[in-house]
Amino acid sequence: MRKIFRIYKPFTHAGVLLAAQYRANFYFFILGDILRCFINYFLWHAVFTSGGNKTFMGFSEVDMVVYIFISFLTSVLAYSDGSYAVGEEIRDGNIAMRMIKPIRFDLAFLFQELGERLITVTLIFVPLLVGVEIYKFVVTGAFAFNIVNFIIYIFSLILAYLICFYFNVCYGYSAFVLKNLWGANFLKDCIVGFLSGGVIPLAFLPPVISTILNILPFAALTYTPVMLYLGMYDVPTIIISFGLQIFWLIFFIILQQIIWNACVKRMSVQGG
Fold it and tell me: What pTM did the predictor assign?
């Protein structure tokens, strides 16, 4: 493990520099997403106010507001740009240079993205989390931060990011066939955003569909960590949720290696 960190540490440093170089672009993206969160907040506030009910599908208004902002935070931290990065390297031919180096293709991207995630955590994680807890205190009049749920959430978030990374790497390898993934990436992000519970909680869907989506890997990206943060899972459900996340992580790690071994045999570089 120490040898791996020593070899790939420069990629982490490069990721930090890359994220810092384009920080203005990052700020505008985050600002746009935060505005979307506030739009969702006012929408759900209107739903609870007009309906006159204290709960909706098991969620109180406070739960729903926390879900909106923590799901946004989770989706940002667990997001991986692997499919775009891999697709671009295949398209412009830079992948050929990576292949001649004595490094693993997936680990190089992983450590580079970890550097970018460090900037994201520094800039938005603590402020947004504190803001959510202040909101809960103002509305409920009680300090409701649960350190156990928070620790469980962090572990789940780490698994969510790794699943997302390897899923996107697998998806990015389709550029060996499609050559350009711009449109396909946009479609993928929209579908994954909905299936992961980033738009609405999966509990709001019909029971059969909700059960199926909870088993699929997409729920592990956003919905599972957020529900763990909210403390809505009992101990057996928590164990099952972690089991599913670990299963899908191992599945995509193995799958990406299988796809990589198959694709390099038929690689044709367009640029370079």
Answer: 0.85
Q: Tell me the pLDDT tens digit for each residue of 109-126.
A: 777 778 777 777 777 888
Q: Which two tokens stand for residue 163?
A: 């699943």
**Could you tell me what percent of the chain has a pLDDT over 90?**
24
Residue 178's contacts (CB-CB under 8 Å, 6 or more residues apart) are 184
Cβ atoms of 15 and 111 within 8 Å: the answer is yes
Of 245, 209, 210, the C-alpha closest to 228 is 245
* C-alpha torsion sign, points 130, 136, 139, 142: negative
Which ranges constitute the DSSP H helices of 173-205? 175-178, 182-195
CA 169 to CA 172: how far, in whole Å? 5
Q: Summarize pLDDT for 126-184 with one digit per residue, the tens.
A: 888 888 888 888 887 778 788 999 999 999 999 999 999 999 888 877 777 766 666 77
Under 8 Å CB-to-CB from 21, ≥6 apart: which residues?
none
Tokens of 37: 């969160």
Nearest to 180 by CA among 189, 172, 188: 172
Tokens encoding 182: 């711009």
Query: 61-78 and 23-51 are packed helices; what angle lies between their axes, rounded to 10 degrees?
Result: 160
Contact predicate 225/129, CB 8 Å: no
Local structure of 214: helix, strand or coil: helix
Give the Cβ contact number of residue 47 at 10 Å: 13
Q: Which residue has the tokens 């992000």?
A: 189
Using alpha carbons, select from 159, 151, 175, 153 the residue that is nearest to residue 267: 175
Reference 263, options 86, 111, 80, 92; nearest CA is 86
Please give the structure tokens belonging to residue 34.
Answer: 């935060």
189: amino acid identity, one letter: D
